[in-house]
Specification:
Elements (H helix, E strand, L loop, with lengths): L2 E7 L6 H14 L4 E5 L1 E2 L3 E3 L2 E3 L1 H10 L5 H4 L2 E2 L6 H8 L5 H14 L2 E9 L3 E3 L5 E2 H8 L3 E6 L4 H14 L4 E7 L6 H14 L3 E5 L10 H5 L4
Parallel strand pairs: 1-7, 1-10, 2-7, 3-6, 10-11, 11-12
Antiparallel strand pairs: 4-5, 8-9
Helix pairs in contact: 1-2, 7-8
């Protein structure tokens, strides 16, 4: 059975997909059978052959993993809104049993599964047919998380509130990765210290714009998975 970690962000467009791609790339280059999985993705491009799951395509391109796009994201929507609203507009609402089945299939086939969330922790995934929030998926699969946060101004509030909410709801967070980092920036260094001080959870990595590799030791990265 494969080991897994869930990638959650402080919000939309914080860089979850980008950093997830670097994580999967590092595992693959180390000879690990690494998989990417995401329950639902919105804002995808429609072509003559159907919707192209952009997040899955990006991760596949960067990490060069051998996976079919359809196995990486089972629920794909065109409208760039939260999955619950996209499925209201387009149909095909998220079903937890389908997510669980697809996830378990990957666990039997791969060593490490990196599962990316949609939006922030309070993202509604389905609402009309069944009320499903992102946290329901995390709890159903029993996963611990890594939080992706912006390195810049405002991140203390966003990161601490996200982590405190997750702690309150019984969702373990193993570490924080900061995105859009600038080496030696005094504000960003202080942001990391303040987040660690308030949450007691370490900042395990920093990623600069345009980074092609994840500057986290392989052994430390593997320890995040369970």
């Amino acid at each position: 059975m494969g080991k897994s970690i869930f990638i959650v962000g402080t919000g939309t467009d914080v860089g979850k997909t980008y950093i997830t791609a670097l994580i999967v790339k590092k595992l693959r280059e180390a000879g690990k059978r690494a998989a990417y999985f995401k329950a639902a993705a919105s804002g995808n491009v429609r072509t003559e052959t159907g919707l192209i799951p952009g997040d899955a395509y990006f991760v596949k391109k960067i990490s060069v993993i051998d996976m079919e796009l359809t196995d990486m994201i089972p629920y794909v929507y065109e409208n760039a809104v939260s999955p619950h609203l996209a499925s209201r507009m387009e149909g095909n609402p998220v079903n937890l049993e389908v997510i669980k089945e697809k996830y378990q299939e990957l666990c039997h086939e791969y060593d490490y599964i990196t599962m990316e969330g949609s939006g922030g922790i309070l993202c509604p995934v389905c609402f009309d047919e069944n009320e499903i929030w992102l946290e329901d998926i995390i709890k159903m699969l029993g996963l611990s998380s890594v939080l992706i946060a912006d390195a810049g101004l405002g991140t203390i509030n966003a990161a601490v509130l996200t982590i405190e909410y997750m702690k309150q709801k019984g969702m373990p967070v193993k570490g924080i990765i900061c995105n859009h980092c600038h080496t030696g920036d005094p504000m960003e260094e202080d942001n990391k210290r303040m987040i660690e001080h308030r949450c007691g959870i370490p900042v395990i990595g920093c990623v600069a714009d345009g980074a092609e590799n994840l500057d986290i030791p392989l052994e430390k990265l593997i320890q995040l998975y369970e």
